[in-house]
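User: For my dataset I need records formatted as: sequence, then structure tokens, nothing else. Please produce one.
Assistant:
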Amino acid sequence: MRLQNKVAIVTGGGAGMGLAVSLAYAREGAAVVVAEINRANGEAAVQAIRDAGGQAIFAQTDVADSAQAAAMVDAAVEAFGGLDILYANAAVQLVGKDARAHELSEEAWDRTYNINIRGVWLCAKYAIPALLKRGGGSIVNVASPTGLLGCAPGFTAYSSAKGAVYGLTRVMAADYARDKIRVNALIPGATETPLTRELFADDATRNSLIAATPLGRLGRADDVVGLAVFLASDESAYCTGGFFPVDGGLTAI
């Protein structure tokens, strides 16, 4: 019960890696706000947590919308009395629309940036005052190898937005360290989730990613759980501004 008496928000918490983390945080004793744009997924996640004896509420949230990001935090405070953890996971990858720079539409660029970096910032913007009231806490941003390496050719908007997550993580870690708010990034590799289903449906793409991963397989949603719990818990009390890969060795080569 490493998160006992803590309150956590998980954005995109109703599917894929976000769902795995929502369930894990609840198992570790946290009260969880499942912040999810898809109501059916979000409510199903909450029910699964409650069925297992945990505490959870659903907050329908488009992270790119300022009012909804603020309401998400308000819901956590109203339901559970405060906030200790923000796991910023919600993202999009526009397969078939993201493209090389000169072929990329402004619409695809704007949608990707609105969710994948503006949404991360907005959630932090509204979560941080609640964390300050608790005397500190943990923010875990979900980054990507694509923000470090040119390993996703043709995904210009996604790769560059995920690159911005690293910069945001660094500056927030420096800004809030004295306030006892730790800010780190978790870096999943090529992981099978609803977000990547369409991408991995192409056998050539799937096989090339497996071949590029030293452990020789794609990631599973549960692979991120160990680090996600560690970074949220007091076990990582001396960790801030860090980048923690869960990528099968992809970024090691």
